[in-house]
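STRUCTURE:
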């Protein structure tokens, strides 16, 4: 029973924190710098999710023999140059397959 209470409590707290930003966004008077900084949150969260998947291989950070990291760098360059998510995914996956085929 304790495990269920912990899970429900964690869910309520998580929901409350996330909902508070939606609820308070128009009601609270946040400074301009804070509102501007919120635009960078999705990119920072995505980078925090993706980068460990690219850099960690065999339970260690590996920069030398890592095809995922090289393909991720290629995809990042394509994303920077084109701004197209579709082109980034296509080039990233194609480069990963080609690099894995060569290695």
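SEQUENCE:
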């Amino acid at each position: 029973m304790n495990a269920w209470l912990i899970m429900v409590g964690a869910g309520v707290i998580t929901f409350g924190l996330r909902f508070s930003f939606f609820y308070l966004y128009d009601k609270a008077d946040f400074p301009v710098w804070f509102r501007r900084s919120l635009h960078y949150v999705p990119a920072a969260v995505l980078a925090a999710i993706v980068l460990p998947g690219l850099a960690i291989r065999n339970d260690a950070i590996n920069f030398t023999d890592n095809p995922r990291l090289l393909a991720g760098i290629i995809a990042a360059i394509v994303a920077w140059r084109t701004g197209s998510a579709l082109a980034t995914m296509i080039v990233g996956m194609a480069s990963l397959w080609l690099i894995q085929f060569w290695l």
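REMARK: The first helix runs from residue 2 to 27.
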